[in-house]
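Troubleshooting: if your tokenizer reports a length mismatch, compare your output against this known-good record of 209 residues.
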Amino acid sequence: MFSFFNQGSIYYLLNIYSDSSQMALKYLKDTEANINNIFIMTGDFNIRDSTWDSLFSYYSTYENTFMDIANSFNICLSKSTNQVLTRYSDNPNDSNSVINLMFLCPDIEEFDNHTIHSEWRMSSDHASLIVNILIFEKHIQTRKQMIIKNNKEETRFIAEIIKSIKRLNMNYIESKKDLESIIQELTHNTDKIWLKHSKVINITKHSKS
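Known-good structure output:
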């Protein structure tokens, strides 16, 4: 199991190998594993089923249990962007198949499908399943223009703002254009007074909110 932290929550990735006896699925079912915030479940499940393998004509007896486990984790079977096989047998008596699957969290809009890269398997008999997770750059502000509360600059700032408002000529507001002009004048004056009395400070872990 892998995890990552995002916006105050921990999300988990389950990488599962279930043998031909389906021991992993039986364990998840019998223990009723309660794991929240799973965003990906993937692996070699060793289950052939017509639901995800178009070359296979039958349903597996494990299919219902498999889907019940996925539903309990609030994840859905992902449809690959290219419908190719995931397991390639070296034994000519065994057919190639789709037994590597991926389940994704439907609540995360950044990704909703995966791609199978059979050309990347090299000496392995299993293809690689790839999903792209977009990570957006987040700007963290480290400097801020401010007026310190309860000091003389705050008092001067408020006094000048009051004078600026009193000086506005609001005797002839006859149209929307007149009102917008007064608002622009007030905005300009406020910005000018703010820059006059405020100062730039560095934000650190010791800064007050």
